[in-house]
Amino acid sequence: MAEQKEDATLKLVIFGDAGTGKTTLAHRYMTGLFKQNKLTLGVQFHVKRVNIVIDEGEPSKSYTVKLQIWDFGGEKRFRFLLPPYCRGAQAGLFLYDVTNKKSLENVADWTSLVLENAGKIPIMLVGAKADLEENRQVSREEGMQFAEKLDLAGFVETSSKNGQNVEITFETAAKLAFKAIASQGQ
Questions:
Q1: CATH of domain 8-184
Q2: What is the mean pLDDT of residues 3-27?
Q3: pTM of the model
């Protein structure tokens, strides 16, 4: 059987404070299963072939892309790894934990570090652990305001536990990345 050719290879970086659910989200996306993960040591790497539909203009067009997902450990001791690994990225997901306000307050530091090294790429703000409503410290509106204030490419809340918005988050990030490289003529 012939292997399907990709229209593009897209590099997506996932970053944010330790304990926000980055690895759990990536695992849920890759396998469809919920698995609470321990501390990510350094960087984890995943690859998934996905189909995306770009529906701007008529008619809409479908593309097959290879999505490279780079998941960075959020502890300060691993922060030195981020600059070289985010070079060449076409999009990013900044994760914060809706039950931990401090994890959202660090969004500006994280995003500036990524943008310094990856260039002006689209970054989505992702509120993780949305299923823990009773422990919420950050309202949906507050998350949306942060995304607007920092001029980020989008906002979504997810739950790796129940699967809420997991697929759509990665699909949207892949579309943003694809549009970014298409606009550069790559």
A1: 3.40.50.300
A2: 90
A3: 0.91
